[in-house]
Amino acid sequence: MTSGDGTINSGQDIYSYSQIIQGILILLSSIVAVGGYVVQSRAAKKQHILESRLEHLRNLLEKYVGPAQSLGSTANTLRMGLLKYVYHVHKGKKDMGYREMMDDIYGEGALSEVIAGNICEYDRLLSKEVENEIVANPNSTLAKMYRRTMRLMIYEYMQPLAKLLSINMGIFPLPSREEFKRRFPGHRGATLRKTFLLWQCCWTQEMTKIIEDEWDKGIYTSVFTTMTPYPTHCNSLLAGMLSDLKKEIETLTEGFIKATDNLSMQEQTKLSQKLHQLKKKGESGDKENNNKKKNKEVVVNMNKTTLTNNNGSKNASASKYVAK
Fold first, then answer.
1. Cβ(242)–Cβ(69) under 8 Å?
2. Is position 47 within any domain?
3. Considering the domain boundaries, does residue 268 fall inside one?
4. Model-level pTM?
5. How many C-beta atoms surround the C-beta of residue 180 within 10 A?
6. How many CB atoms lie within 10 A of CB 75?
7. What's the domain range around 198?
8. CA dist., res. 92 & res. 238, Å (int)
9. Which of 95, 103, 100, 133 is nearest to 119 (CA)?
10. In the chain, % of residues over pLDDT 90
11. CA pair distance 71, 57, nearest whole angstrom
12. Tens of pLDDT along 164-208?
């Protein structure tokens, strides 16, 4: 084999080596691209789950829990106004506070028991003494004020609340059984967590029948319901749901999104580092390839120089014989 053939083979080897390096770099670039797609796909999936959860929570808040709590709270405000009228105006006890009012209606220490969750139902809104006074004198200002307040509570707020609860009770985000028992230890019932909502619906219906079947016909012997108690903590339960929903929405929109962004940034950083490493490997391969190419070129040039020198010597010898 001549030196020229060796040079050609060396050039072919260099070309083949370059093609292999180029193929490896293309493959690695494809792997990085696929990795980037996987990261984006995961981030998009997390974002979709987050958005779906937030939409569900906002729907609960805006269409169900929020309106229910507002209706119950407004009705309770009317109840508080009635108590103030009875004690501050009718009885003239302007300095009497809510705790003293509750003691007069339900017994000493009643408010503390209500707050502790031990009293969970009311069988009346006013004291027995006041109820008897209303029945004895149905045309008095006190009696008229009581009936007017109850009509407002029922028709403006309790009926819309009962309708909302009765149709959608199953989707309200009730607390866990353990949490419910902790907050309302005085309640015992088969339905447990739904009991207050069920009482609210039944009490509203029974009170509506008293108004329409008796009061509207001039019969004032009934002042309050007899079958269904007034749920002491229905509004408290709804307020707890409202608070829990707001906290979860806040957590998802701030904390979870921030965590997702950080995770995405970490994954992108890892990919960037891998890409940088692959790029360095590619540059190192190119450099090694160039060095080998230069070495081959040096060998080729040396072969050419040797060949030229040999040819020069042969020509000189031939000239010498010709001259002779």
1. yes
2. no
3. no
4. 0.68
5. 20
6. 22
7. 64-259
8. 34
9. 103
10. 57
11. 20
12. 999 999 999 999 999 999 999 999 776 789 999 999 999 999 999
In the chain, which residues have pLDDT < 70?
1-17, 19, 22, 25, 27-41, 43-44, 190, 255-324
Residue 237 backbone dihedrals phi, psi, to 5 degrees: -65, -45
Residue 201 identity: C
- On whether residue 168 sits in a domain, the answer given is yes
For residue 10, give the amino acid letter. Answer: S
Q: How many helices (H) and strands (E) does the chain have?
A: 11, 2
**Among 203, 108, 106, residue whose Cα is nearest residue 154:** 203
CA 246 centroid distance within chain: 9
What are the b/e assignments for 89-110, b being 16+ CB within 10 Å? Answer: ebeeeeebeeeebbbbbbeeeb
Query: Into how many domains does the chain fold?
Result: 1
Q: Considering the domain boundaries, does residue 44 fall inside one?
A: no
Q: What is the mean pLDDT of the chain?
A: 81
3-state secondary structure of 307: helix
Query: Could you give the C-alpha distances from 161 to 4, 8, 158, 249, in angstroms and in order?
Result: 99, 93, 5, 24
